[in-house]
Design goal:
Layout: H1 17-41, H2 49-53, H3 58-92, H4 95-109, H5 112-126, E1 132-138, E2 145-152, H6 153-157, H7 164-172, E3 175-177, H8 178-201
Antiparallel strand pairs: 1-2, 2-3
């Protein structure tokens, strides 16, 4: 969503800070999503491709360490977006809009991509780095490579505490395509904020 399409800041004395923060945080989300996706795809362009993908050692550890940092940043900025949007709604709207927003937030949190990424972040913090595999594909051009990072569902299920949608998904698929999950979650979050800005822009002054 372009910054130019967002509604103008409130002109009255309502607290403007959450409004401004939301704009900046949403922009930060796009940056974090791109950086996470770049790390997921990085081995395709890595001169030490075999070491990163197939050989346990310092280079592979460094790669997975960077992957985790980017994942943590991404999950954290989404959580911040939701928290600040709720602050804005609580301060500036009525009960009807607050209830509607809560439904949207709940639906986002119950989605498979949200529960997988939040659970994966918690898994690495409290448990261990899960078993990962990487498939490297070569296109028609001999110089064009692509990599797909998969995480073992069986390894993830060894850790308890998965939320229902994530657990059902992990039981159904042998491997999780991390890049696809990130793309799907980014789309869901952007859809939520497209709705949010449009809805807030149409609110009456009384917040009804």
């Amino acid at each position: 969503m372009s910054i130019d399409s967002w509604p103008a800041e409130p002109a009255d004395d309502r607290d403007k800070r959450p409004w401004v923060y939301l704009r900046l945080i949403h922009e930060g989300l796009q940056i974090d999503a791109t950086e996470l996706r770049d790390v997921i795809q990085r081995p395709s362009n890595d001169a030490n491709l075999r070491s990163v993908v197939f050989e346990p050692g310092p280079q592979q550890e460094e790669y997975f360490g960077e992957l985790y940092v980017r994942l943590h940043n991404y999950v954290a900025v989404v959580a911040t977006l939701i928290a600040v949007s709720r602050i804005y709604v609580r301060k500036n709207t009525g009960a009807a809009f607050r209830a509607l927003q809560q439904e949207r937030v709940a639906a986002l949190g119950e989605s498979v991509p949200a529960q997988i990424l939040q659970g994966l972040r918690n898994y690495v913090v409290h448990y261990n780095v899960p078993y990962m595999e990487m498939t490297v594909e070569q296109s028609v051009s001999p110089y064009q490579m692509s990599s797909i990072l998969h995480i073992s569902s069986k390894s993830l299920l060894d850790c308890r505490g998965w939320k229902p949608a994530a657990e059902r998904y992990l039981q159904e698929v042998p491997m999780v395509n991390l890049g696809r999950i990130v793309d799907d979650y980014t789309d869901l979050v952007n859809e939520y904020y497209s709705w949010f800005w449009a809805a807030v822009g149409n609110l009456d002054k009384d917040g009804s």
